[in-house]
């Protein structure tokens, strides 16, 4: 049996294990799905209510509510997809710390790249499925007309962006290795800061200067802008290259950098005996 | 031929385990003075020497016991051999491979059962073991067959194999942990107090599996325990470990020959430990009911 076959089997172990976990925790999955759908709907309803809450009386004719609803909906769905990938990858260590299985997984003859690949494949498939359900529900509720949207372009944009979120996730997943008790909470700081500066529900131009400067470094900024151009303005895919290129470059840098950071964290945990402590 | 060679192994926790921030803080607050000071002083974590310049070798097919009290360094030694910790000094070779420089080669050949049967509690034994089997490159069909075969041999009912682990007793969970280790057919099996907390019957069943592993597959086994009888009946040789040091290493009979008969009865390993350290191996509060 080749080393590649062994590593492929090992990689699938993480996909299958996570699938079994969500199957066993199905009630929590349902709760999370309902919560996420309700949140996406709530944010998008702000678009419909803009006339009433703008301070200009009952109607604000200058507001294109259909456009605004889709703008907000894209923000909430893209963010849901990217943050879900991030959380599943950071759960690489969180889950194992929680269950106390971390030593068994880390002493198995599995390359960390294989480990990450399995978790990433699951993260992307799960996030696509989960976000797909929310998209279906919200499209039905708001009767959104996507006939003039460049859907393939939007999908290509979001998939390009997911690579850099994989890198950020791998980097953040080293926190629970370094800090057994608080590492899991620390990963939330990453995602909260990215949400603030990336223009999830507003254009980054409304941000104060220093936050606007940080937005340049967030891959989500380019993903959101690119997806909005594709879906709202029907911009052709080749014209989205200007947004895909930076996120791909950030991804190409962040994935190996994340693996390197993780390897250092694993080495530190093995040196200081932090591996066997459960958070 | 030696399966495991441990040479001058040293591992300590505390000072070297400090965070970069706390080290910088201490350096700043010591105002540039030289000297690391007392490890116990100025808020520093005390240094704990877990493994103190330990050397020994284990032959292929041997059942090698490490006997010692809680906190004596047994589990740290197992973690160092199983690539889960890095030594501060010294070397460990497993089946010819260095655990620090060739961890993957070592990992392919070993498995471990620890005192805590750690599993994904909502998953069934089948799901947990299938996950473990895939990590070691086994194909799913073979693994499924072997899981059923091993677990039924260990006395698990078939329906338990598909029920969540959280519904099982600790003894049953420990049997599943042993099955997980057996699935990968390791050349070296590290058993870290595998029978602690088990009822006498489960203990005997686990011990029978350990013997069978050696007899059928020639597996080398390192077993840590503070159960004297277990060490006496299972092990070919026993190292007695206390405060991170190996204070005696011999066959059970050889160790017992170190002390004279006690009140007319032949000496036990407990007597040996008492003679060598002046302490009881299992303190009254640690004794199992």
UniProtKB/TrEMBL annotation, chain A:
Keywords: Cell membrane, Membrane, Transmembrane, Transmembrane helix, Transport. The keyword Transport applies. It is a multi-pass membrane protein. One of its GO terms (cellular component) is plasma membrane. It comes from the Bacteria. Pfam families: ABC2_membrane. It is found in: Cell membrane; Membrane. The keyword Transmembrane helix applies. Residues 30-265 form the ABC transmembrane type-2 domain. InterPro entries: ABC2_TM (IPR013525), ABC2_TM_bact-type (IPR047817), Nod_factor_ABC_transporter (IPR051784). One of its GO terms (molecular function) is ABC-type transporter activity. PANTHER family: ABC-TYPE MULTIDRUG TRANSPORT SYSTEM, PERMEASE COMPONENT, NODULATION PROTEIN J. Belongs to the ABC-2 integral membrane protein family. This is Transport permease protein.
């Amino acid at each position: 049996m080749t080393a590649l076959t062994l590593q492929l089997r090992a990689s699938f172990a993480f996909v299958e294990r996570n699938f079994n976990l969500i199957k066993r925790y199905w009630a929590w999955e349902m709760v999370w799905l309902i919560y996420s759908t309700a949140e996406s709907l709530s944010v998008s309803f702000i678009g419909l209510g803009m006339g009433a809450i703008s301070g200009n009386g009952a109607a604000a004719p200058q507001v294109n509510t259909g456009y605004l609803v889709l703008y907000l909906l894209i923000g909430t769905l893209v963010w849901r997809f990217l943050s879900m990938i991030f959380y599943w990858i950071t759960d690489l260590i969180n889950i194992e710390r929680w269950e106390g299985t971390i030593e068994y997984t880390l002493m198995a003859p599995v390359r960390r790249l294989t480990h990450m690949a399995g978790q990433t494949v699951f993260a992307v498939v799960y996030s696509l499925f989960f976000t797909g359900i929310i998209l279906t529900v919200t499209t039905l509720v708001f009767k959104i007309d996507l006939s003039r949207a460049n859907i393939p372009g939007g999908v290509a944009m979001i998939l390009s962006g997911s690579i850099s979120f994989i890198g950020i996730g791998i980097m953040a997943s080293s926190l629970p290795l370094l800090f057994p008790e608080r590492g899991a909470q620390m990963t939330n700081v990453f995602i909260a800061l990215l949400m603030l500066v990336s223009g999830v529900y507003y254009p980054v131009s409304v941000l104060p200067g220093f936050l606007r400067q940080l937005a340049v470094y967030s891959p989500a900024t380019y993903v959101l802008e690119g997806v909005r151009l594709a879906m709202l303005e029907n911009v052709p895919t080749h014209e989205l290259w200007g947004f895909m290129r930076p996120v791909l470059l950030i991804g190409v840098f962040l994935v190996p950098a994340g693996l390197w950071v993780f390897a250092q964290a694993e080495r530190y945990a093995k040196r200081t005996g932090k591996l066997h402590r459960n958070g | 031929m030696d399966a495991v060679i441990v040479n001058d192994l040293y591992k300590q926790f505390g000072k070297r385990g400090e965070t970069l921030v706390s080290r910088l803080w201490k350096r700043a607050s010591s105002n540039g003075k030289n000297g690391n000071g007392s490890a116990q002083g100025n808020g520093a974590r005390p240094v704990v020497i877990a493994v103190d310049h330990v050397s020994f070798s284990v032959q292929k097919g041997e059942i090698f016991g490490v006997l010692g009290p809680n906190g004596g360094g047994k589990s740290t030694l197992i973690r160092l051999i199983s690539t889960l910790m890095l030594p501060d000094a010294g070397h460990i070779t497993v089946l010819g491979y260095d655990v620090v420089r060739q961890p993957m080669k070592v990992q392919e050949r070993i498995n471990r059962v620890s005192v805590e049967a750690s599993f994904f509690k909502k998953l069934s034994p089948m799901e947990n073991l299938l996950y473990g089997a895939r990590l070691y490159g086994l194909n799913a069909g073979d693994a499924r067959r072997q899981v059923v075969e091993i677990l039924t041999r260990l006395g698990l009912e078939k329906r338990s194999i598909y029920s969540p682990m959280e519904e099982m007793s600790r003894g049953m969970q420990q049997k599943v942990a042993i099955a997980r280790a057996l699935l990968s057919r390791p050349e070296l099996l590290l058993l870290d107090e595998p029978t602690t907390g088990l009822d006498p019957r489960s203990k005997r069943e686990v011990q029978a599996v350990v013997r069978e592993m050696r007899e059928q597959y020639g597996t080398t086994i390192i077993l840590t325990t503070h159960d004297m009888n277990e060490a006496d009946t299972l092990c070919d040789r026993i190292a007695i470990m206390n405060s991170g040091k190996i204070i005696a290493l011999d066959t059970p009979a050889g160790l017992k020959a170190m002390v004279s008969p006690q009140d007319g009865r032949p000496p036990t390993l407990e007597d040996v430990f008492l003679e060598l350290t002046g302490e009881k191996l299992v303190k009254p509060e640690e004794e199992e009911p």
